[in-house]
Amino acid sequence: MNQDYIKPDNWSIIEEGFDAERVKSSESLFSIGNGAMGQRANFEETYSGETFQGSYIAGIYYPDKTKVGWWKNGYPKYFAKVLNAPNWIGIDVEINEENLDLNTCTEVRNFRRELNMKEGWYNRSFEATLKNGTEIAVNVRRFLSLDLDETGIIKFDITPLNKDAKIVYKPYIDAGVTNEDANWEEKFWEPLEVKKGTNEAFVTAQTFKTHFKVTTFMHNTIMANGENVNISPSTIDSTPDKVQFTYGTIIAKGQTSSIQKVGGYTVSLNHDNTLAAAEKTIKAAVNLGYDTLLQNQIEAWSKIWEMSDITIEGDVKAQQGIRFNIFQLNQTYLGKDSRLNIGPKGFTGEKYGGSTYWDTEAYCIPFYMATKDQQVARNLLTYRFNQLDKAIENAKDNLGFKNGAALYPMVTMNGEECHNEWEITHEEIHRNGAIAFAIYNYYRFTGDYSYIPEKGLEVLIGIARFWHQRASFSAAKNQYVILGVTGPNEYENNINNNFYTNYIAKWCIDYTEEQIKKVAAEYPEDHKRILEKVNLTAAEIQEWKKVADDMYFPTSKELGIYLQQDGFLDKDLVPVKDLDRSQRPINQKWSWDRVLRSPYIKQADVLQCFYFFEDHFSKEELKRNFEFYESFTVHESSLSPCVHSIQAAHLDKMDMAYTFYLRTSRLDLDDYNKEVEEGCHITSMAGTWMSIVEGFGGMRIKKDQLHFSPKIPKEWKGYSFKINFRNQIIKVAVNHNETTFTVDGDQDLTIIVNENPVTVSKFMQIN
């Protein structure tokens, strides 16, 4: 059974009723972020029940020493972790000398959470009876400002219901935090300085080893019935890593007492003096005030939704799912800083270390290219260019490669490999291909070729050199092979000739050669600069080409399919439909040995190749491969349903496409994988967007033109989306009778709809 407590709503994520068993899951689902920082939906007040405390700052990490039973040569020395950042949201509350703690209240009524995605705020409300008999109504609203992105705001309202109340607020900031997933139970933060003012406080701490300096700050205002009561704290308690103020107030029954807390972080990534920056940030936020900050937040999110929203008519759960995905993607990354990237959990949890994976290039870049200015996607590409030297070092030190061959890390924060599973770190090398594909995809979509001569060609050359050296010549096959790899299907390790890996290796070499020729012809100065810098010769390129031209691809002529790898048909080929449901998910029920010997596929592998290179294969080839491999796919990766949804739609398997869409869009809301309490699956959310735009909308870029082949699930009345294609905004609206294309601007645009060219002016309707 999937969880089903989230109420269907077009624009909000809503939970009604307090259940301690759901607290950690809801902490993930109601997370908030603004691209610079984020936090799980932990309670501000004391909570003695089970909780997963988590606040995070973009770009701040710690190199947690790798913990393995048997050290192998080439293991990364550390696993980078996004750090649980100092806590700025904390507000202990006493009411008539009783701590407010939902875990100990005698009764909790009308509990409700709402994550308002349209306006960008999180609200929690409830009524409670404390052990001392005092009854209260509480409403708490929190948001992280998009405009002042180092700032968060909390408004905590308490109304006594059955008697007058003495309310004591104890807001604090605390750098004495730890990570749940620490390998060695180390503390990651070293306190440096505490500063206290009348209603504001600062704790400056730095990370051990990496020495990121962070000033955590707060400013507090106590109010009664919406008016500032202008009181100062009665006491100020502090330790080297914590400051806590105490404010005592008396409020009459039926009246409302409030604390407004401004807090957040200033970091050494952006400021030389983090304390001075924090003081300046508080001043800016306080001068604007809560109401203006909230209004600015609503307007900022309105601008984001104006471009990125997808509407679905007639299916509230589908609508809620896609907006949740789009909302979380925008909370996680807004493209302002090329030093930052998109972690698989974003700001919602610690799993996967918050690091960069190939997910960014394979799944996220299309979303950001189409819904934002192209500079955002270019920043993601620049992130990899800036880490090219580390990728070359990685190939040299860990694989013994030479001559500038580059292996980008499977997991990274700063360009260094920090994934500590051998079969992933050194065998899942297909990630190199996704990085090259993203360069191609960026140019294909934006038409901006300048990135390749400026930066991209150096990356492509390093990757081509890697594939040339990683392949080996098989005398028996009289072809080049790639041995000992893990494909996208991580349920098979150390296999030979993974089709997707071999195919993308060949493509990378061919594409790099094409770009070298194009840059030579059109950007001769860049061509000369690059070839001299990397010491590339025509003879070396010819050696690459031998590998690409004679690459081996495992196939089954009998079945008319490409084999996922050598020997795949030797497995006991029992399809997933015949697998006992009690054995699912197999990654939690089976030994790893049993998983590896099985035919079961975690996510698209051969089909990932068909997704990237659809034009290289016929529709009939896709159909045969899809029907064969989908029958063995258990979809135990968040990245799996979206690719299958796109391909099912392309093959007119609309019921299947819709089922996969619901699974990818509501993966976390319905907790398909029974792990949402660890955080949400942020990078796969970009795949959800692709399921609609590329799946149902059939959007493709072919020969510099936009193509569409719109389809609509029978469950929907209609849907619409926008894309920014080469600085022209195209809105596509589809229902069961017609498709409407609108161009925002005076320039005409020729698109291909169902293989027919159509010139779209200001407004065009196609039946």
Task: Describe the fold and architecture.
- It comes from Flavobacterium araucananum.
- Keywords: Hydrolase.
- Residues 699-760 form the Glycoside hydrolase family 65 C-terminal domain.
- InterPro entries: 6-hairpin_glycosidase_sf, 6hp_glycosidase-like_sf, Gal_mutarotase_sf_dom, GH65_N, Glyco_hydro_65_C, Glyco_hydro_65_M, Glyco_hydro_65_N, Malt_Pase/Glycosyl_Hdrlase.
- One of its GO terms (molecular function) is hydrolase activity, hydrolyzing O-glycosyl compounds.
- With 767 residues, the protein is α+β, with helices and mostly antiparallel strands.
- The chain has a domain at 31-308: Glycoside hydrolase, family 65, N-terminal domain (Beta-galactosidase, Chain A, domain 5, Distorted Sandwich).
- Helix content is 32%, strand content 25%.
- It is built from 20 helices and 33 strands.
- The strands form 8 sheets. Strands 1, 9, 10, 11, 12, 14, 15, 16, 17 and 20 form a 10-stranded antiparallel beta sheet that branches. A 5-stranded antiparallel beta sheet has the order 8-7-13-19-18, with no helix packed on it. Strands 21-28-29-30-33 form a 5-stranded antiparallel beta sheet.
- Strand 14 (189-196) and strand 15 (200-207) form a beta hairpin.
- Helix 18 packs parallel to helix 20 (682-696).
- It is globular and about 85 Å long.
- The protein starts with 11 loop residues before the first strand and ends with a strand.
- The mean pLDDT is 94.
